[in-house]
Design goal:
The protein is an alpha+beta fold and 59 residues long. It has one domain. The protein is 24% helix and 24% strand. It has 1 helix and 4 strands. The protein has a two-stranded antiparallel sheet with strand order 1-4. The protein has a two-stranded antiparallel sheet with strand order 2-3. A hairpin with a 6-residue loop joins strand 2 and strand 3. The longest helix has 14 residues. It is elongated. The protein starts with a strand and ends with a helix. The model has no long low-confidence stretch (mean pLDDT 94).
Length: 59
């Protein structure tokens, strides 16, 4: 698993809500950007791991 924690930089008045690409949990400020899934935002590295395992089982 490779990736890094990223911070969503938004002005205080922005009302857009980001959600975890796997579990749907709301992401308030920091999210996990996984190198294997560059278009996804995860609430924590474990969600990326679960997605990785689920997709591996499906194959």
């Amino acid at each position: 698993m490779t990736g890094k924690m990223q911070t969503i930089e938004l002005p205080w008045y922005e009302t857009r809500i980001e959600n975890c690409s796997y579990c749907g949990k709301m992401i308030a400020r920091d999210y996990w950007a996984d190198d294997d899934y560059p278009d996804d935002k995860f609430c924590e590295p474990e969600c990326a791991d679960v997605k990785r395992r689920a997709l591996a089982k499906a194959k």
